[in-house]
Specification:
By secondary structure, the chain is of the alpha/beta class. The chain has a domain of 215 residues: Rossmann fold. Helix content is 42%, strand content 15%. The protein has ten helices and twelve strands. The strands form four sheets. The protein has a six-stranded parallel β-sheet, sandwiched between helices. Strands 6-9 form a two-stranded parallel sheet. Strands 7-12 form a two-stranded parallel ribbon. It starts with 10 loop residues before the first strand and ends in a 5-residue tail after the last helix.
Length: 316
């Protein structure tokens, strides 16, 4: 398919198109010449419902499915909803992959998660290590649900010749992110807390954990570019990491966000709260080798853009 890939000829079904990553991906699809894009909302098609999935595929008749839709959140949300996070993410993907196969979809792109990696995977995380241990406990149900979809795609490729690829993005951030403190990830949560502390002229901000854990962050526009390059150029069974290849301690990240937000007070760490996985950093060489993806936006530049968009009330 990749040898003759043409965006204007694709009928694209994009799940999660109204979400954070989906909005940025849609802009890039249009810029590439895609004219036939269907991005149903949850109200228009509940992907947990098999009959609704069947009707959606019959209506759209896609040549390409990009499955971004997911139930996600930070450590608190994962701890509060392990059953929901497992079931919803697993069943949406299982239905969509099976019905896409039956509908004759030419290519399927599945988004995985860095949460699928073992808790103590060697750093940087190489795709070949994804099965060498159990994920970090607080987000294991979510990570394992996504990993089951990798198994499904590999099995379907083997048995049916179904062309499904599995991309593993690291933590995303950028304009238009989710800033709800009950469900947000670390960067938007930090931005909101720092901005609100500055506005309130607070002397301190309290954050979860010790600050010693490390994370890697990928700017959302870079992530969208990686997904589209994979759709265009990669047709293999191996999972592929999408990231920058650089990690930062949460304590240092908090300092960068405070600086970008203009907060000059003290940061206090609630060490009774969990850190999550000790370290996260991806080996990103496979993506560059297989389809030429390399992140362009530095963390400092990305944080500046993200804080500016938040302060301006921009919802991308």
């Amino acid at each position: 398919m990749s040898a003759v890939f043409s965006w204007p000829e694709q009928r694209v079904l994009l799940t999660g198109g109204a979400g954070f990553l989906g909005k940025h991906l849609t802009k890039k699809l249009i810029a590439r010449g895609a004219t036939n894009i269907t991005a149903p909302t949850k109200d228009e098609a509940d992907l947990r419902d098999l009959e609704q999935v069947k009707k959606l595929l019959l209506r759209v008749n896609p040549t390409l499915v990009i499955h971004l839709a997911a139930v996600v959140g930070g450590i608190g949300a994962n701890r509060a909803n392990p059953g929901r996070f497992f079931y919803d993410n697993a069943v949406m993907g299982i239905h969509l992959i099976e019905e896409s196969r039956k509908a004759g979809v030419a290519k399927y792109v599945q988004l995985g998660t860095v949460c699928a990696y073992p808790k103590f995977a060697p750093v940087p995380f190489r795709e070949d290590d994804i099965w060498n241990g159990y994920p970090e406990e607080t987000n294991a149900p979510y990570g394992l649900a996504k990993k089951m979809l990798l198994v499904q795609l590999q099995a379907y490729r083997q048995q049916y010749g179904f062309n499904g690829i599995f991309l593993v993005p690291v933590n995303l951030y950028g304009p238009g992110d989710n800033y709800d403190l009950e469900s947000s990830h670390v960067i938007p949560a930090l931005i909101r807390k720092m901005v609100e502390a500055k506005k309130a002229d607070a002397s301190t901000v309290e954050l979860w954990g010790t600050g010693k854990a490390s994370r890697e962050f990928l700017y959302v526009e870079d992530a969208a570019e990686g997904i589209l390059l994979g759709a265009e150029k990669y047709d293999g069974p191996l999972p592929v990491n999408l990231g920058t290849g650089s990690e930062i301690a949460i304590k240092d990240l908090a300092g960068l966000v405070a600086k970008a937000a203009g907060f000059t007070g003290a940061i206090k760490w609630d060490e009774t709260k969990p850190d999550g996985q000790p370290r996260r950093q991806l080996d990103v060489s496979r993506a560059e080798q297989l389809f030429g993806f390399k992140a362009n936006v530095s963390l400092e530049e990305g944080l500046k853009k993200t804080v500016e968009s938040y302060l301006g009330g921009i919802n991308v």
